[in-house]
């Protein structure tokens, strides 16, 4: 009986082993069959060659920046009296932003104005003195033609010659007109020198006044353009140095996008290409832009060389933030109404040649423009031909 029991146990164990082996075999077959079915289905999925647009694009992430930024400073050094803005303030052109103590500048303008008034008065006196001591040459020319002979009478008109000539001793003069002697002529030259000197003094005083007025006006910073204040470099009571940037102003009404592209993409970029911009804070919206600059020289971090690109909004939205990120997609090539297939259908690409699966057979085709979604077919297929979408 013990032998029978042991045999029964062996049979049970053997049956269990057979069941386990059967289950393992079933699992393996099921797995192999499940893996093959999608491949067959995938390989069988076909599309027809059609006509349409083919585009190529490159994409990256950039940041928004102002088209122009102004660094504003005082023209004179002094103590800051007022600061009417702070970082983030939106201003209009001509708005007063800050001032420094202009007491010294105003005094300098007053002094320069007084010096100019004195110089002009001196010029007037010099001109008047020269006129009172000079010769009436025009009158001498007129009276010289009255008679061909000279008269000894004091009241007679001197007529030494039909054409008056200058001598070192005398010049013809009309009755009652002072004769131009050599001493008078030298006096006239001195008068001309005095006028010239006075005029030079006036010119110098005018330049000094102009500079003083510029310095006085430079004690106030006004906004040259409308925009947003980026930074303010001081506060009321602090010292300001002439020529040092005190306020930075950005033109936020003409924003641009600054982006970097790897060299593999940059060689396809050119000024004038169209782009699409998306912003994180405006989900679902797209904005058209145009490439306005491509840097001719790249920058390298040791492993990758990138080229800077600047894009301008075709119609910029309002309330953009300087420095915010933007997704950039530039169209580098485009063709309309050409034969095309999905780009996933093309394999073994070598130059302008590639292979597609047509009717289950590999077919050589000649390629044109290759985009991310579609690839242009130049020859080897016709519209309506079925090709595998991917294989």
Automatic annotation (TrEMBL):
Residues 144-194 are annotated as: Disordered. It is found in: Cell envelope. Keywords: Coiled coil. Residues 75-245 form the Multidrug resistance protein MdtA-like barrel-sandwich hybrid domain. Pfam families: Beta-barrel_RND_2, BSH_RND. Residues 257-332 form the CusB-like beta-barrel domain. Residues 144-187 have a biased composition (Low complexity). InterPro entries: Beta-barrel_RND_2, MdtA-like_BSH, UPF0194_transport. This is Efflux RND transporter periplasmic adaptor subunit.
